[in-house]
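Page 42, continued from yesterday. The earlier attempt failed because a stray header line got pasted into the input along with the sequence. Redoing it now with the clean sequence only.
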Amino acid sequence: MAILKKIIIASLPFLLYGCREDIEPLIDTRPVLCLNSLITAGKPIEVSVTRTWVYTDSKGGNDHSVSDAKVSIYANGNLVSDDYLAQEGDIIRIEAYSNTYGSAWAEVTVPVATPISNVKYTPTLKDLWYNDREEWGVSLDLTFNIATTLSIPNDPQANLFYDLDFTTFSPANEKDSDFSDDYDAPGELLRWYTPPSEVHFYGGSFILRDPFFSEYVGAFDDMMDWADIYASFFSNHQFKGNTQDIHVDFQDCSFRITQWDRNPELLECGYVFTLYSISESYCKWLNYRWQSDQSLMEEIIDVGLAEPIWGYSNVSTGAGVVAAQSSATATLNLQDFLFDYISKESK
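This time it went through. Structure tokens are written below.
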């Protein structure tokens, strides 16, 4: 199927050879205001006001600012100042006016954050190198997989939208303040000097296995075996019950430490998960971005065999997106897992 897919895509330009013509489109339209804002709970509201331009307007493409725009922000029907901090549950309305380009408005509700109620993980060891020398301490090189389960509450009566993100953490490499690598220390000093421990943690490849991470994949992408591409945004439309498990796999993770002095703090590493509760407008915009950047249909559109994908907007003028988000975090610390393996090897 993969070979067929490549053949189809590769042959499309030849089908269109000789059917191209340069044209100058006559578009009877005037520029309108464009509003963009990603409102985050607990932070001030920032709004970008620009204006639209046609593709052939190179001047507008280089500079589409609006110098005379006036912006008003309302929270739950009340006009607020520029330093207002958005709150979960707020109904935010943004209005903009320009003498040149007219008016525009959009409204969004800031979602209430969904907590991550439980984090469980199962490690699978792939490879291990261990060395313990009295004069240098423990050195370890470990390769492993991590299967993680995040549990979140669900409201079956509500339409909820999410985006999942993560970062890794580990101790910073320690630097010795007394000796540098090129310091020519006397022999007597070198007998007691021990190089500092060095820690390296790699979080592995990020894999999402649940079907709701591919709910945006269309029938054509699925038929052409394009459905193995996942994204981090999803909804609760396929959730069942009052609790939902989210499965996240990390493959080919690695942890390496040299000259470990058995300080347990140097084994503290892992992942910080952030679950963003996002507005429907944000989810639709992320879906548009995926469809236009990664779907197979976009390959067909690029060679002129299908109509372009229309952009998404919830602004009154049809230009721009006003979205909102809140977030909850949870930490997965691999310290116990690493300490257990080191303890086993040292016996």
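Notes: The radius of gyration is 27 Å.
Reminder to self: strip header lines before submitting.
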